[in-house]
Amino acid sequence: MKTTFNNQFPIVLLILSITGSNRLTSAGRWYTALDKRQYYIEGSTKYNWLQAMDKCSRLGLQLAVIDNPSKNEALVKLLRSIFRKSPDLWIGHHDEFNRAKNKNRGWYAASSGRVINFGYWRKGEPNNKKKNEHCTQIYRKADFKWNDETCDNHYFGYICEEHYLKDKYKRDMTTKQNTMKQRNNELLSSFNATQNRVQENLVIARNETGNILELWERSCEVVFENFIQSLEELIKRKPYLQAVVADIGASVYELALEAKKDISTLTTEARRSIEEIQLNCEKAYPPT
């Protein structure tokens, strides 16, 4: 049966974690590179590659995966600022226990299994010496360049970074937050536009209602005035009605004045009711 890296990994990790347990102390620190990426770097305490990966995992992190030139450049500048010379540091690359001495053999991210298409190898590396150098280190003799090394019997420092899934979820969450923010802004803009239209319509309605009430009140006054004028003209043309008017005229005038007063009261109440309705609408749709 073909043995793969994935088959061997849990067993090897358990054995190495037990045999190397006396080394599981850490004095690492967080650092921020120029590209704003953050790294947890342990440069003094020594671990084999699997123990280093386990240590990162216990911190909720992963061994750093350097998969492009810009990320590598920023990390190298950071390491130069921390260390006077290149240290031995594990990073999260492996070759799936490939025993071929081919320098172009595949390398993979330990955290995701993704192929790594970038390399920053020391001259002559990776050489897979004795066909058992399956893990990647930043080499102390190579000015921060890489070397392939045996995973289990060399003890170096290590570089951890945020786990790729956490980084992915963070990017996804940022995208969703930006989308929600955009949608909220669109809804707010639409709501504000609706409020403004309602306010404009309320102002128009208030003006039109006021004009209608004034016209109605004025029309009633005109009708009343015309009634009085017509009655007076009728008496002039029909003198015999003077006695009748003298008898009931006071009552007629009182009724007319009372009607006029009622019309004025109704107009005032109608205006007050309409203004109250408009005020409630303005409270519900305040101007933006």
TrEMBL record:
Keywords: Disulfide bond
InterPro entries: C-type_lectin-like, C-type_lectin-like/link_sf, C-type_lectin/snaclec_domain, C-type_lectin_CS, CTDL_fold
PANTHER family: MANNOSE, PHOSPHOLIPASE, LECTIN RECEPTOR RELATED
Presence of the UniProt keyword Membrane in the record: no
Protein name: Uncharacterized protein
